[in-house]
Design a protein that fits this description.
- By secondary structure, the protein is an alpha+beta fold.
- The protein is built from four helices and seven strands; from the N terminus they run αααββαβββββ.
- The protein has helices at about 1-20, 30-50, 55-60, 85-100; strands at about 70, 80-85, 105, 115, 120-130, 140-155, 155-165.
- Strands 1, 2, 3, 4, 5, 6 and 7 form a seven-stranded mixed β-sheet that branches.
- A hairpin with an 8-residue loop joins strand 1 and strand 2 (about 80-85).
- Helix 2 packs antiparallel against helix 3 (about 55-60).
- The longest helix is centred in the N-terminal third of the chain and has 20 residues, at about 1-20.
Length: about 180
């Protein structure tokens, strides 16, 4: 009985803390200056990716085994696209992709959207064309979506997860 009461009180205290730190419904948790700073960080990320500056890209990511990159896989057992967890795996994947030949990321900045989820977490979304010759891709620019979760670490914003998804071709019209 005592254990059940303790667990219930602990859960209530933790959930109250979560609610207290969340913004009120409809209220943006991040101000315009912070959202603008994250947009600038996104632009820097694209610049570094196009330069294949692997060391600087490493520094853009949250240093954690929970950091995630979802990208094209070259290993059939991983599936066509896979998640790469932790900085060592992310660094290796970015190096493999960037060393495979020309890689050019062209985001549509007019559609870049950054929103705050909490005071310490933001999300960005942007459609883009990516030209890459990695893992059977033919080096033709193709449409992708890039979704990034940003995490505040001290006074900086780091990439906690970067999800790159190919946009499938539109289905043929029936008729």
């Amino acid at each position: 009985m005592y254990k059940t009461l303790l667990v219930t009180l602990t859960a209530a205290a933790l959930s109250t803390g979560s609610v207290a730190s969340a913004p009120a419904a409809g209220q943006e948790p991040l101000d315009a200056a912070t959202l603008g700073a994250i947009k600038s960080k996104f632009g820097r990320l694209m610049e570094l990716a196009n330069k294949h500056d692997f060391k600087a890209l490493h520094e853009m990511f949250w240093q954690s085994p929970s950091a995630l990159l979802v990208a094209k896989s070259a290993i059939p057992s991983e599936g066509n696209w896979a998640g790469f967890w932790g900085n060592e795996a992310i660094d290796q994947k970015l190096h493999d992709i960037g060393s495979s030949g020309p890689v050019v990321l062209e985001p549509d900045y007019s559609k870049l959207k950054v929103v705050g989820l909490t005071r310490d977490v933001a999300e960005s979304y942007v459609p883009m064309n990516i030209t890459v010759s990695y893992a059977g891709q033919d080096g033709t620019a193709r449409p992708f979506l890039m979704i990034i979760n940003w995490l505040r670490v001290g006074n900086d914003w780091k990439v906690a997860s970067e999800i790159i998804l190919p946009v499938p071709p539109a289905p043929a019209a029936k008729g």
